[in-house]
Design a protein that fits this description.
With 382 residues, the protein is of the alpha+beta class. The protein folds into two domains: 266 residues, no CATH class; 101 residues, no CATH class. It is built from 15 helices and ten strands. The strands form three sheets. The protein has a four-stranded mixed sheet with strand order 1-2-4-3, sandwiched between helices. A three-stranded antiparallel sheet has the order 5-6-7. Strand 8 and strand 9 form a beta hairpin. Helix 6 crosses helix 11 and helix 11 runs antiparallel to helix 12. The longest helix has 18 residues. The two termini are 23 Å apart.
Length: 382
């Protein structure tokens, strides 16, 4: 997940121009190169540390990027991203030095260079709703580095074997400079093929689960970026774009999570359907996302009931809950409010002055509908 996060800003144009200038010569040279196949054996080789080729490419990338972008030193933001990296690192295949840096850039972006240096823009930090979404994007980029995706993609683009590419990278001629420019282009602009993107998603989900994160943040971030790309009318230069495979990747991520026992519950990464019990205009009010869902008298028994119902709603209610699974069954004091067959509260429990259970049902329905409208790209019943 890289350059597709947003359009080219004025601060990005110098780097974009430099990369494209070098990439032109790289493409021209490739036209005269003999076709070669990247062997599955080469692609599968994994070392315990960064290779000299990765180190060289990473160093060139850092020099070029930081000659155009401002890297900020904000201890709070740095601790936020480094904490996530530290939790995920033990679950990567290789022991890379993941040096994460924060670029002062409005563009919503994150990417990794060969060898493990990573960049997260301030635009990305502002865009994510929760640390679950931030962990999702960081896990994805760490896998790109862990699996040598930049080098694999470059070899495919220029029809080289990995051995030939490694030889060019370690040379000190013009070819090495051109290859370095190509590596930056792949990383910053997210020019990965769909199979590498899917691998980064799947292996990232594995790492998130093993590190104790809910992996749904990776999914909701992709869905929100897809929405953002449709909302913003902007010139598409052909590189910075939302990949046409976005829907395919989202569907694959949902399938992978479900197949590996990770429930797709988006509210945790979106910060939605949060419950609370408050006092307003002399009444006790149970709220969902700050909106009143149920009212009663402001007394001890009612507060105890509302607090329990609020807790049970948080456990049982999801954005993926179908409308017909939020219902009231029975009549009078024998009725009950249920979510997916689970009894949340019975009519016989209601203190005097408490609104009917039908009022609670309507309030919950409204809250779920509004929460979904704030995240419209999701297929909640996939």
């Amino acid at each position: 997940m890289s350059g597709r996060y947003g359009g080219i800003s004025a601060r990005l144009l110098p780097l974009f121009t430099a990369i494209m200038f070098c990439a032109f010569f790289l493409t021209a040279g490739a036209l005269h190169a003999a076709p070669a196949v990247v062997s599955s054996h080469d692609a599968a080789v994994v070392s315990s540390d960064a290779t000299p080729q990765e180190i060289r490419l990473g160093q060139r990338g850092v020099e070029e990027i930081e000659s155009h972008w401002t890297i900020i030193n904000n201890p709070v933001l740095q601790a936020r991203v480094e904490t996530i990296v530290g939790r995920l690192k033990p679950f990567m295949e290789r022991n890379l030095s993941y040096d994460v840096r924060i670029a002062d850039l409005e563009m919503v972006n994150a990417f990794s260079l060969s060898g493990g240096t990573m960049y997260v823009t301030t635009g990305m930090l502002d865009f994510v709703r929760t640390d679950l979404e931030l962990a999702g994007v960081i896990a994805h980029e760490m896998v790109h580095a862990d699996r040598k995706h930049v080098i694999t993609q470059m070899a495919r683009n220029d029809r080289m074997t990995l051995l030939t590419l490694a030889t060019v990278i370690l040379s000190r001629g013009e070819g090495a400079a051109v290859i370095a420019a190509s590596a930056i282009q792949v990383a910053v602009m997210g020019s990965y093929s769909i199979d590498l993107e899917k691998e980064a998603d799947a292996r990232g989900i594995d790492a998130l689960v093993r590190a104790g994160y809910n992996p749904v943040g990776m999914l909701t971030l992709q869905e929100r970026l897809q929405e953002e790309s449709l909302r913003r009318a902007q010139v598409d230069p052909g590189i910075y774009r939302t990949h046409p495979e976005a829907k395919e990747r989202i569907a694959a991520a949902v399938k992978y999570m479900k197949g590996h026992g990770a429930p797709v519950h988006r509210k945790y990464s979106l910060g939605a359907l949060r419950t609370s019990v408050e006092t307003a205009s002399g009444d006790l009010v149970l709220t969902l996302d700050g909106q009143a869902a149920w009212r009663g008298a402001d007394d001890g028994p009612t507060r105890a009931l509302f607090n329990r119902v609020a807790s049970d709603l948080w456990d049982a209610l999801q954005l993926e809950t179908a409308p017909y699974d939020i219902r009231v069954e029975g009549l009078g004091r024998s009725e009950a409010f249920l979510i997916r067959g689970r009894t949340i509260v019975k009519g016989s429990e209601l203190p005097v002055g408490t609104a009917a259970l039908s009022s609670l049902r309507e309030g919950v329905h409204k809250a779920v509908t509004e929460a979904r409208q704030s995240h419209p790209m999701a297929d909640y019943y996939m």
